[in-house]
Amino acid sequence: MKVSYNWLKEYIDFSYGPKELADILTMLGLEVGKFEQIGGAPNDLEGVIVGKVLSAEQHPNADRLRLCMVDLGGDEPVSIVCGAPNVAAGQKVPVATVGTTLYPFGTEDKFKIKKQKVRGEVSNGMICAEDELGIGPEHDGILVLGEDAVVGEAALGYLPIDQDFALEIDLTPNRIDGASHYGVARDIAAYMRDKSKARLPEIKTTADGGEKENPIPVTVLDKDKCKRYTSIYIEGVEVKESPDWIKKRLAAIGLRPINNIVDITNYVLHELGQPMHAFDADKLEGGEIIVRTLEEKTKFITLDGDERELLPNSDLLICDAKSPRCIAGTMGGLNSGVTFETKNVFLEVAYFDPGTVRKQAKRLGINSDSSFRYERGADPFMTEIAARRATDLILEVAGGKASKMADQIHAEFPPFEMDLSVKTAQSRIGKEISRSEMIEILESLDIQLEEDNDQDKLHLKVPVFRVDVQREIDVIEEILRVYGYNNIDIPEKLNASLTFSQYRDDFRLRETYSNHLAANGFYEIMTNSLVSLKFGNEKAVPILNPLSEDLGIMRQSMLPGALESIQYNQNRQQEDVAFFEFGKTYKMGGDKYQERQWLALSISGKQAGPHWGGKSKESSLYTMGKEVERLQRWFSFKGKIREIEHEEFDYGLELIYDRQSILRYGKVKSSLAEHFDLRNEVFYMLIDWAKLIEIYHSDFPQFEPIPQFPSIRRDISMLLGKDAQFADIQALIQKANPKLIRSVELHDVYMGDKIESSKKSYLISIELRDDRKTLDDSTADKVMTHLYKQLERQMEVEIRR
User: Fold this and answer.
1) Beta strand 649-657 pairing with 660-668
2) Nearest-angstrom CA–CA distance, 736 and 742
3) Is the CB of residue 206 less than 8 Å from the CB of residue 200?
4) Dihedral angle of Cα 655, 661, 667, 670, to the nearest 10 degrees
């Protein structure tokens, strides 16, 4: 949701700049995702200040130049050479000081102001024309500022600039009270807490409206779904383009002007947060309005041109005597709106039941500005104010004559009442905010307090438009957000109790293993659990009201999401990827739903990019196999690998432990990769996370104390065949004496002209230790002698003693 900086200032006086205001709103819970400048001057004219021309004499060396002495608010005036014909002593002018960068109008060029000599005279800046400042095309002479301009201050505030800022608020679902400029201003007023109050716009319409009764009667048949219906009839309007001030306000928040009547309904919606709809009164069959549900299915074409099927006894509609005209609170019908031929307007401002609007908007796939507000809970007391405000604006810009206001109320809207304990609030907040300051904050939020002599308890009445404040803890949150999260001190001391359990918390285990994967080059992805119908079969779990065919069923496999992520990165020149994702799959098993938790790994492209230290390697099944080894070490178990055939793989392997399949991995079928236009081979692993957790819980790692006896380290230098693998050497050494040999490390590899071309040299370091006693050299020598024989006989190596 976007709000306009200038528009906000119509409802409350504040001096914060756009960036500071964005920070304040974020701290108040109305997070500003970004803000952008609309119109105005390039770079905010930083470095351009107000100067006063003290004198403007003829340049001694140029007929068309003047040498001016200008007061810039410093200790001494400065000299500036100026070529404008209208420069004169006594003027207040915008001066670009030395070091300022200017962006001339109508060009992408820029230039920096320097101290320089012009025809022999020193110039310490530039007195600017409109085009030189980048704020307009005029270049006939310099800009002359008003007498109220203060010498030495930034010139931006004194220039004829139409500048605004749009702040984009990432509104959370619970803060619908902030879905308007007035609502945001109300929070700013609470933050200021200096008796400031957000001002409602001035309402000129009298209490009784016009002289005539509303000629279009309204009948509300379903009063539970339409709890308030306010309407005004305006005759003799002239539908035309909106005035510039309305167009600019709407453009600032990203809305396209349509005509003055429709623009006013949008204007008031974003001003006060109250949806409304303007009907062409002459098109209402039978000259009446009926708010009702229908008794049978009906086809209805909405304003966007789509045909939608309305459900009987469910969808709430605004009808005339013959047919539906609008889906209440959601979207108007194709021919229900105002056009340039409209002469008489029927203005509807209502309060519809949030649950009703939410269900029908969701089912019909409609997300309009109106449904966004109604389904979260609009303010039922705003309908009358908004109706009168819109009427005032229509009469101002379109003319006409208004009827009396008709207002039907079918429910009571009592405030939310609750008690607040001051001590509880202080405990929850973590700081002893005084009772008086709490009261000040609550009153600034329009929360009423009843008189109570109890110093701890406060009885509160929360206005109904704050649908998110219905419990004591909600009130505490309100106090905290206005007081300021950044004003809560961080304690110098934290208390914590350490606990140990044989069983790891699954969530913590998942987080820890995620960090392990990230440390090994994987990036976590989160893909949608809703997928296209083309990825389903007879066991798929369908969505009752899918938003589209691409989101029609729950996923039965984690693979499509991984392939889409690889495709997305590939299309952006990121072909070397390694992803992991925790997620669930869903399918029908008989008459029950089945849900399973998985960990999916996918790699494609090179293992690492080009590097001076060596060539990059393509990912392969072996790359994924290394991850299987890491996983077994991390979870402390050893399974068996066997080949499998699977519909997802060209070739694949499976890890079996305790007769259970723990994971499967392989090369993704070429046909699947081609479907996603993938250029590189993809290797994929699917881990049954639930079974893995069971293994981890049942075979919990055992910890050993620090060794009590010292170890002995021996090195072996050997010659062996060029194709021999260190892993084979390592396995043989460890097998030779597993009780005493603790580690085997490769320290050096040599291949060069000092040995045969078919050979290579290894320097291997071995650690030996006996955990029962101190190991002596004679025992170590015996182990090494036996090891030499095993290596020479089984691996055909030459020991270099």
Assistant:
1) antiparallel
2) 11
3) no
4) 160
Given the DSSP bridges, would you call strands 111-112 and 101-102 parallel, antiparallel or unpaired? Answer: antiparallel
How far is CA 136 from its chain centroid?
36
Contact, 53 vs 89, CB < 8 A? Answer: yes
pLDDT tens digits, 327-376: 999 999 988 889 999 999 999 999 999 999 999 998 888 989 999 999 99
Question: Regarding beta strands 277-280 and 307-310, do their DSSP bridges make them parallel or antiparallel, or are they unpaired?
Answer: unpaired
The Cα 488–Cα 432 span in angstroms is: 10
CA distance 556 to 537: 9
Q: How far apart are CA 250 and CA 265, in angstroms?
A: 11
Here the tokens at position 144 are 């002359």
With beta carbons less than 8 A apart as the criterion, state whether 600 and 571 touch: no
Residue 701 has pLDDT above 70, yes or no: no
Render pLDDT for 117-154 as a digit per residue (tens, 0 to 9): 999 999 999 999 988 998 878 888 999 999 999 999 99
- Evaluate the CA torsion angle 70, 76, 78, 79 in order and state its sign: positive
**Which candidate, 75, 68, 67, 41, places its Cα nearest to that of 52?**
68
Please give the Cα distance from 591 to 742 (Å, whole number): 55
State residue 210's pLDDT score: 64
**Rounded distance between C-alpha atoms, residue 472 and residue 423, angstroms:** 12
Nearest residue to 414 (alpha-carbon basis) of 342, 474, 355, 465: 465
Q: At what angle do helices 181-192 and 435-444 cross, to 10 degrees?
A: 160
φ and ψ at residue 364, rounded to 5 degrees: -85, -5
**E-strand stretches of 634-711:** 640-644, 649-657, 660-668, 682-688
Q: Which of 737, 796, 725, 794 is nearest to 764 (CA)?
A: 725
Residue 728 has a pLDDT of 82
Model pLDDT, residue 207 = 47
71-124 confidence digits (pLDDT tens): 999 989 999 999 999 999 999 999 999 999 999 987 878 899 999 999 999 999
Contact indicator for 363, 209 with CB cutoff of 8 Å:
no
Three-class DSSP category at 3: strand
**Contact yes or no for 265/272 (Cβ under 8 A):** no
Smallest CA-to-CA distance from 419 within 446, 456, 465, 445 is with: 456
Number of Cα atoms under 13 Å in the Cβ half of residue 225:
22
Instruction: For residues 338 and 260, give the distance between their C-alpha atoms in angstroms, rounded to a whole number.
Output: 10
From 411, 416, 484, 412, select the one nearest 448 (Cα to Cα): 416
Q: Which of 534, 542, 525 is nearest to 676 (CA)?
A: 534
pTM beyond 0.90, yes or no: no
Torsion-angle region of 198 (φ positive above 0: left; ψ -120 to 50: alpha; else: beta): beta
Whether 687 contacts 663, CB under 8 Å: yes
pLDDT digits (tens, 9 = 90+) for 755-768: 888 899 999 999 99
What's the average model confidence in pLDDT over 240-265?
A: 92
